Batch of 2 targets.
Target 1
Amino acid sequence: MDLFEYQGKQFFGSFDIPVSAGEAVTTVEDAVAAAERLNTYPVVVKAQVQVGGRGKAGGIKLANDADEVRTFATDIIGMDIKGHTVNVVWIEVASDIAEEYYASFTLDRAKKSHLGMLSAEGGVEIETVAEENPDAIAKIWIDPVDGLDEATLREWVAAANLNPDATEGAVDILGKLYTAYVDGDADLVEINPLILKPTGEVHALDAKVTLDNNAGFRHEWAAYEATQERDEREEAAHEAGLEYVGLEGSVGIIANGAGLAMSTLDVVNQAGGSPANFLDVGGGADADKFVAALTILDNDPRVKSILINIFGGITRGEEVANGIIEALGRIDLAHPMVVRLDGTNADEGREILKPHLGDTLQMESTMLSAAAKAVELAAARA
Ligand code: GDP
Ligand code: MN
């Protein structure tokens, strides 16, 4: 899950990374009160949306007194930034900036390593730096088992050609940032800009953090979880305990197991169609799960046909078939559905489905033919 800047700063703060003091608020009055509590001006009024380039969009303003906080908070709360409505603003003590840098850690899956990036060209989007001046980004790959030792860290910082005054501060923050990334179970931590102040301190002025949801059980992430922005489909799936990701295509997909669900997306593409979602019903095959999954897909205006792709393992084919039939009895499905059922006791499962086949429920014997059928049905109804 992606954190808002103010949550990212809270996350950084818990690993002792220096961030500015501030408060997150949702109303103009609270924004003014928060600024007064910070008890120093200027403060920065920052729109909290999960999209970059807030500064350019007018979502970040320096306020010199309470009246300016009121003016800027009035402008920013409710503002639309690239399709995201601003509901929360973060008021923080303004920093003096001598230089702006870029720092991040993320996973390089191809290299099976962590990737650290550090650049003296901060403040702008890293993609732009990568395109226009790739040599300005110092990269290191860190073996997750070995970790990041101080000598390597120092070499890396030296390679980035920061102002020498920033060296010690950068080494300190980057060491902590790596710890935050690893121990905090993040997939991405990014500070842009990481600033050098005229006084010589190095400080995180922005925070972008993506946490690994699979590690949630190890942490207290309820507060982050509570503010997640989900579309209606994702919210319904989350409540039903389904692994769901909304996409833009027209073939709704239900599969068991994340690997099979991903392959199903590929096969729908291969058949010339486009998936409306990723949905993993997981193990088991009770009707409740199918009811929840089918309801989400059926209510999605993008969906034109539904493809169920199940490979029976511990869950046997006849249980799956019975689950599907019971679910269909409980909801009035508006879209045609194609089932491919294979694996343990698939023959028994198919026998159960056979008497119910028709325009609404169709069956195919292979994954590719089922995908082709679902794509054809979706195209006919587009
Ligand atoms: P983004 O545009 O969404 O990446 O938002 P940032 O938090 O990175 O802020 C954008 C820019 O606003 C920064 O690169 C700074 O130049 C400026 N800015 C943000 N906070 C401060 C501050 O405390 N003092 C000053 N002088 N500038 C700031
Ligand atoms: Mn930024």
Note: The domain at 99-222 is CATH 3.30.470.20 (D-amino Acid Aminotransferase; Chain A, domain 1).
Target 2
Amino acid sequence: MSVFKYEKDADGIVTVTMDQTGPVNAMNTEYQLAMAETVARIEQEAALSGVIFASAKKTFFAGGDLNDLLAAKPGDEASFMETLEAIKGPLRRLEKLPVPVVAAINGTALGGGFEICLACNYRIAFNHKSVQLGLPEVSLGLLPGGGGVVRMVNLLGLQAALPYLLEGMKVVPEKALAAGMIHETVQSLEELLPRAKAYIKANAGNVAAAIQPWDQSGFKIPGGNASSPKLAQLLMAAPAMLAAKTRGLLPAPEQILDCAVEAARVDFDTALRIESRGLTYLVMTPQAKNMITTFFFQMNEINGGASRPQGIAPQLTKKVGVLGAGMMGQGIAYVSAMAGIDVVLKDISLDAAERGKAYTEKLLAKRVAKGRMSADEKAKILARIMPSAENDDLDGCDLIIEAVFENVELKNKIIRATEKHLDDDGIWGSNTSTLPITQLALASSRPANFIGIHFFSPVDKMPLVEIICGEQTSDTALAKAFDYARQIRKTPIVVNDSLGFFTSRTFGTYFDEGARLVVEGMHPSKIDSLGKAIGMPVGPLTVHDEVSQELSRKAFETWEQMGVADKWGEQDSLRTVIEFLTVKNGRGGRHHNGGYYDYVDGGKTLWPGVLDEYYCSNAQVPDDDIKDRLLFRQVIETLKCLESGVLRTVADGNIGSVMGIGAPVWTGGFLQFVNTYGLEKFQRRCAELADKYGDRFSCPSIVGEKILEGSMFR
Ligand code: NAD
């Protein structure tokens, strides 16, 4: 029996209900067979009045089979292209049937799923916020190769289609309707099939309803074809704008733009073939392998709870105490209240706590102004946050998160003062950026319930939480922190204790290598622009100005006090430069009188003092070496974290590096980078860099071990 259920009713309407093996429908071999068979059968059907494509799954259709895409390797181009054409053929035949074909979209249809919908003459979707429509292939380094690029361009016009294709925008049915991507919505699932049938009946004999716009004679692409003067400016500017955005590091958007323009230039069927060629090229690139591995497979692993201890019942947080209503505390209060959790936001004075709560008020007011939230809902969320200056208000909290100054004595003091207010099984989390959790836990009378919950700034935007287990942290405490992170809709990575954990420690090497290049006499602007050239969001010097050198100086002091300084990395140059900036020149970073740069009128200029002190016009380090130094330092530190057990899984290292540190997306994270760079080649390049620039580039032995095993970082 086919996995596509085939039913013909008395009115001559065939309903095809897709119900593949497993939880979702996907474009794999099983689909290919079922679709080819189904289309052939429909073509033979006598007294046919229309066709409906429906789904028996919760999602309409999940898209391409990413396992197949990951497995395709250079040399397989011809067979891959053949498979693609075999997928596209039946879709083209479907849209050429002499009767209307309707997509009855009951749930999310992304990628290949939406491409099936696009090959139907009429698209009706269930109007629900859980239903997402769109073509997000670009976010995995791919292009919509099932006709998505070509049909979207023909449907919406080049200009309107580009954001959906280049940015992979996903939209709810209401928005898709407004954009012209679908034709109709229904308010309940029960209405879906009856509406589809009603549409077919209402259009019996209407020839136009059975022909796609692009197959009708005299069809013109909305907004004109590629030679239209109206598009001349777009076509001239788009490649440059795209290159500025991707910095030439991401082949997928370039291919998509190329295919989209071709779709507006050549005939429909030729365009489909160009699109197949585009996907065939992309699927073999290391960037696509990296992005699929990390952003799909490893992300699912992490959000699915692979790093959560098994066998512990879900731990719902009901009341959280947030200590410190500064930059981080106010953000933590906001995300917690948004997730329906009661919050006690405590600072040293009620005034300070109320200022912290005002942050939530400000963010919610913006939502209300944009029509994304009702005034009632806003009031309800605000009412969940109780500002306070009293420890007694923490009574009954099942979670406390500390976000006071990065000062070990202060943290110790408040641990002792507040711990007793927790529920019996309550856990106490520190949002410290660097301080070892095991050592902080010495001040706790219940170290098993003590854990690190490290947020990133700004808390409301940054999607990651780094959970740090101290030596005595229990599995239950970890499960509770993990579930809390999911409750506030963040992605949690779980790491073991170390100074700077995984993210701060690895990011520190980026600052350090930047500072070393300054000390070696390189021009600061060049260092920053080469940092961006590898795909980091900002250069190492600019980002250190943002984080603040003053904070780093204080951190060094604290580490010395705790006896943990210099436990990793080599930071002598960084210390020298920080001392030069902060102690000698009173420059502690962007918000502390400037750092490497001066900040005036919203812009920044290089501070001449740094040039006078360090710049040497004769200094020569090849650009490629600068780029690799900035990248490899971070990759090597990540490998060391894996080798020493700070990182518990490769997935945590990849997701943590992209979402917490800003590792370039094309790498798929700092560990995945090594896989596609090639382990042996990585070892060789490390040796070259170590030879020229020092031992910090020595390749961690875990790479050699993987080579011997014949495996990779998975
Ligand atoms: P902040 O200076 O903005 O806020 C600290 C707040 O703590 C202040 O409002 C202060 O009044 C309050 N406070 C001090 N003593 C207190 C006490 N005894 N009880 C209650 N409140 C008290 O600092 P921040 O940037 O929010 O950082 C807080 C913590 O988060 C630090 O440990 C920091 O390392 C960590 N962190 C910061 C970032 C970041 O990007 N800023 C990122 C991750 C982690």
Note: The chain is about 50% helix and 15% strand.
